[in-house]
Amino acid sequence: MAKDKDKGREEKGHSKLKGKEYEKELRKLQAELCHLQAWVKAKGLRIMVLFEGRDGAGKGGTIRAITERVSPRVFRLVALPAPSDREKTQMYIQRYMAHFPAAGEIVIFDRSWNNRAGVEHVMGFCTKEQYEGFLKHAPNFEWYMTKAGIILIKYWLEVSNEEQERRFEARVEDPLRQWKLSPMDLPSRERWYDYSRARDRMLEATDTKHAPWYLVRSDDKKRARLNVMTHLLSLIPYEKLPREKIKIPKRSNKGKYDDEATLKGKRFIPEKY
User: Fold this and answer.
1) Any idea what the CATH number is for the domain that residue 108 is in?
2) Which of 53, 67, 152, 241 has the least CB density, counted as fewest CB within 10 Å?
3) What is the total count of domains within the chain?
């Protein structure tokens, strides 16, 4: 099956990306993200990046590629669990607003308030009235966000039926991926077209000039990550700030003592490697 998928990509002009080539491009883009980070911090920008998509679309891997080499104090990841009983009594958007960026921050949402238009609607976690109300008012809410100075970027990762099935099967077999298999994953397979219709309706209602959706083909994880990073960097004008020349100071001998001897007999972990 993997060979068939690779052949299909080649027919479309997308040969399989080699590991070294991917790592080279990834490192280059991650370096640019570090430059962006410095610019955002210096200029006090507020940026939010939303990632939505079906289960298994590759949201987590894409987010990890973006955040791997940057500061968690600037790039903050928000992946909220199901709402608590208290949160269910609040205004729907309220629990998300608590995580909005302050000056000099880039907040990445691994699923966002748009969950109401997807999982919550398809799985019956909200009423029809709540669903319709969200689709009606979400564009206005996002307009206020952008008018307040927040740069809002929304990505939908689109995975094919065949690739999602392959990834779910890998989650079942691989102990390093089994934690990814959530109680929602299996029902989402059965309700593929319900999710497709929910996606279509969400895009139709919330794809606006002030907060457009950007769709990402994500069957090829590596290409999807590189494409998202490249696109993200293109949306935010930034400059490489000059860095002061740094000289590492030598250790001072003031107060010198044998600071290794004082550790003798302390509880070090076993060194098995």
Assistant:
1) 3.40.50.300
2) 241
3) 1
